[in-house]
Automatic annotation (TrEMBL):
Domain of life the protein comes from: Bacteria
Domain TerD: 1-178
A family per Pfam: TerD
Protein name (record): TerD family protein
InterPro entries registered for this protein in UniProt: Stress/Tellurium_Resist, TerD
Protein's organism: Actinomadura darangshiensis
Length: 192
């Protein structure tokens, strides 16, 4: 059963009945809002949203990053499946797979961000979401709606943090500005 997260809400990633998740998938999906063209007809536009996963140690230092220019963490525990340049198609448009058991012990938090590489703001993006899926069962664990008109072109979606022996996910939903994750680092620091 999936939990629809609200901004700031935290959910444990312990499996029902005990144990913790070992492999999760963070999916990002979106559609471009059709622009009004000549004679009021809607015209499709291409919007390139990019999902990134930033790995931080307990002191808040960035230790690694996974994004469209580096599709795999140095240790291989986090992998991006590739860059979707338009958001076309159903379901997840970009996916980041995480082997939670393989994440290095010095990594305390994984922060997931999304930004518009093409620069459009979120007023031009519809049906945007991020979701966390248990890879062993294919079951959606949590979903966070990213839609919401605004002048921002990036969002800090969520973080997955070490929580005792397991992990927990917190929906952040903070707006930001920047075409790549590097521009978002000062805003991300406020949520570590």
């Amino acid at each position: 059963m999936s939990i629809s997260l609200q901004k700031g809400q935290k959910v444990s990633l312990a499996k029902p009945g005990g144990g913790t998740l070992s492999r999760v998938r963070m999916g990002l999906g979106w559609d471009a809002v059709a622009k009004k063209g000549l004679f009021g007809k809607g015209k499709a536009q291409s919007i390139d949203l990019d999902a990134s996963c930033l790995l931080f140690d307990a002191a808040g230092n960035l230790t690694d990053q996974v994004w469209f220019r580096q599709l795999r963490s140095k240790d291989g525990s986090v992998q991006h499946t590739g860059d979707n340049l338009t958001g076309a198609g159903e379901g997840d448009d970009e996916v980041v797979n995480v082997d939670l058991q393989g994440v290095p012990a010095n990594v305390a938090q994984l922060v997931f961000t999304v930004n518009s590489f093409t620069g459009q703001d979120f007023s031009q993006i519809a049906n945007a979401f991020c979701r966390l899926v248990d890879e062993s069962t294919g079951q959606e664990i949590a979903r966070y709606d990213l839609s919401g008109a605004g002048q921002h072109n990036a969002q800090i979606m969520a973080k997955v943090s070490r929580d005792g022996q397991g992990w927990s996910m917190t929906a952040i939903g903070a707006t930001a500005t920047g075409r790549t994750f590097q521009h978002l680092l000062p805003a991300v620091a406020d949520h570590l």
